[in-house]
Amino acid sequence: MEETKKLLPYLFIILLDFYFLPLLIKDTGTAMLLLLVVMPLICFVCSFIYGLKHSYRLFYALIVTALFVPSIYVFYNSSAWVYALGYGIIALVGNLSGAMLFPKKNKHIKG
């Protein structure tokens, strides 16, 4: 239960990233900027900070992936499934990078 409480602020930011930013899409250019630059950057930074503060958790990346899936049906079409995988990988890399940057703080990297 304590681990879940630690996740909530980060997942809230990810939710805003995945469900608020698509409302700003006006055309293809905006969509590409948001989907390929802004949203992945927010996902990476949030995951990196989580890794710095709470170490590595594979579960975090899996939750990020799962959070994106419903947005495919709300904002995009079936071709956006690749983004779910991409955001999961970005979250994994960000989380692991943050955890490894300060190994003294994160003595045990957990899966």
| Morphology | elongated
Distance between the termini: 17 Å
Helix content: over 70%
Question: Count the helices. How many?
Answer: 4
Give the biggest sheet.
none
Order of helices and strands: HHHH
Summary?
By secondary structure, the protein is an all-alpha fold. 76% of the residues lie in helices and 0% in strands.
Walkthrough of the structure:
Helix 1 packs antiparallel against helix 2, helix 1 (2-19) runs parallel beside helix 3 and helix 2 runs parallel beside helix 4 (81-101). The longest helix has 27 residues, at 28-54. It is elongated and about 45 Å long. The chain has helices spanning 2-19, 28-54, 58-75, 81-101. 28% of the residues are buried. With 111 residues, it is an all-alpha fold.
Salient structural properties:
111 residues, mainly alpha, 4 helices, 76% helix
Q: How are the SSEs ordered, and which strands pair?
A:
Elements: H1 2-19, H2 28-54, H3 58-75, H4 81-101
Helix pairs in contact: 1-2, 1-3, 2-4, 3-4
